[in-house]
Specification:
- With 64 residues, this protein is mainly α.
- It contains 2 helices and no strands.
- The longest helix is centred in the C-terminal third of the chain and has 39 residues.
- The protein is rod-shaped.
- The two termini are 30 Å apart.
Length: 64
């Protein structure tokens, strides 16, 4: 479910920590962007999965 965005989230957190240690605001910003991209990918994956579930449940109800 969340695997699609997990790598982006981890990469983002690592960049943020590295930016904080080095005092690099740009790197911290990139990290925040990567983390947000990962959360967005996870949300899209969850939405697709929920839509599939609704579609499957509708198919089951129409056959009854």
């Amino acid at each position: 479910m969340g695997d699609k965005g997990a790598m982006d989230k981890m990469k983002g957190k690592a960049k943020q920590k590295a930016g904080k240690i080095m005092g690099d605001e740009r790197l911290k910003g990139e990290g925040r962007a990567d983390e947000a991209k990962g959360r967005a990918k996870e949300a899209m994956s969850d939405a697709k999965e929920n839509a599939r579930g609704v579609k499957d449940s509708m198919k089951g109800k129409s056959r009854s």
